[in-house]
Design goal:
2 copies of one chain form a homodimer. Chain A is built from 6 helices and 12 strands. Chain A has 227 residues and is α+β, with helices and mostly antiparallel strands. In chain A, the strands form 3 sheets. Chain A has a 5-stranded antiparallel beta sheet. Chain A is globular, with a radius of gyration of 18 Å. The N and C termini of chain A lie far apart (45 Å). The first copy, chain A, binds a DNA duplex (30 and 30 nucleotides) through helix 5.
Chain lengths: 227, 227
DNA sequence: CGTGTGTTTGAACCACTTCAACCCAAGTGG
DNA sequence: CCACTTGGGTTGAAGTGGTTCAAACACACG
């Protein structure tokens, strides 16, 4: 780990929420310490459920999955975090889920302020953290609808549109995660994910160049499938 | 609607997070306007998806459900809000889900500050709102695990333990919501919920006095079922 | 060029849904 | 005061979407 010039407000996601946070940061940047950059290999753990939550993180490159496990090993990935995303902010002293790098990745870690930002009211409470938490909550609410009420094809369609929006360049997306990860995110088995993708491929809705390079050929059809 | 003596920090839930927020409030109570009390009949709408998010709310009595709908009417209830719970805080200008009273209920509404708390950094950013949002996020993460990976009996066991913790008095709980609401919360049909409850009744794990008055007779068994 | 991890595809199974009937308690009105 | 309705809730029987188990395939990497 090394210190680096990595202010919390750099590389903000292109959302109105984060944009607002970014602007605000300029008025009180000294409140946000620079973070340390951490390079991670594929599948490397960033923190585990129950670990002391001394830091929170921003993805700089690659992707991170956060998840919970049941005692018998069933896993639910609650979110994939892509460059610019902030994760690991906790209500209490411990992390309530685990985080791992999906592939090789770099994250920037930020120490929870000595004058604990959540436990003080002295004027430098990080608005940007509020925006990050609200964004996470919004995504979680959408995801509960998916997990509770959408069928397999609707889930995969939603996933493809989400990933297309978040990481497509030049109409093509390079998925960083394997089929099992996708399944554990969507509440499906990896086989069901594979079958849905094959069907969409067969219908010409998407094209493959390798299992993880996908180009959407008919976004409107996907939107219709998404219910 | 009528104005009333209802500070945001009253009737706080017995969680460490909220407790901390409550304490902090004492140091800057003037930043939090008193709210207006609103009485609601069963099934009355508090706000709908897409409505302008001019207020957020705290439950004073009864229960509130927040939910999203798919185009064909499938519904996912993302949370039940009980007395002391805060709901309706949004990242943007619009509500991203709907809220209705489960039975007769009263809520206190708080106007989003003129000097918008989320868009200002002038020293009175509401720490209590941060706590409320973090609590919602924590519950959402637990619920995603339930919806994505637990089977029907595990879901019902989790639900019973949660409701027991949140609203039991003298070992007995009076559920405010019908079987359909429970199903839409747990991602199941009402019939599956009914069958699971009947089975637990048959096994002596719980007792009924009327369909909604439930007493847990063997919490440990339920915890074991909860995976 | 072989080995291993990830992906696809097939076939049987099953947990939950769907559809339907019935029950029960609380109104409502003749 | 009793027939009728209405809104839950329970239970049964059949159907099915997704899982499970299994095998083949493909491509990246030493």
């Amino acid at each position: 780990m090394q210190t680096a010039d990595a202010p919390l407000n750099s590389h903000a996601a292109p959302s109105a929420v984060i944009q607002r946070g970014t602007q605000l940061m300029r008025s009180a940047p000294e409140a946000f310490a620079l973070g340390s950059v951490r390079r991670l290999a594929k599948d490397e753990e960033i923190f585990g459920e129950g670990d002391r939550a001394a830091f929170f993180y921003k993805v700089q490159s690659g992707a991170v999955r956060t998840f919970k496990l049941l005692s018998d090993g069933r896993r639910q990935i609650d979110a994939f975090h892509l460059p610019g995303d902030i994760f690991g902010i906790e209500p209490g002293e411990e992390h309530r889920f685990s985080a791992e790098a999906v592939g090789d990745a770099t994250v920037v870690s930020y120490r929870r302020s000595n004058r604990n930002a959540q436990a003080q009211n002295d004027g430098d409470i990080p608005t940007l953290m509020m925006s990050a938490v609200l964004l996470s909550l919004m995504r979680a609410q959408n995801h509960m609808l998916l997990l509770g009420r959408k069928n397999a094809m609707e889930r995969v369609a939603t996933f493809l549109l989400e990933m297309d929006r978040r990481l497509a360049v030049a109409g093509m997306m390079a998925l960083p995660m394997c089929r099992r990860d996708i399944g554990d995110y969507l509440g499906l088995t990896l086989e069901t994910v594979s079958r849905a993708l094959s069907q969409l491929h067969g219908e010409g809705v998407l094209g493959f160049s390798g299992a993880r390079q996908i180009v959407l050929r008919n976004r409107q059809r996907l939107r219709n499938m998404d219910a």
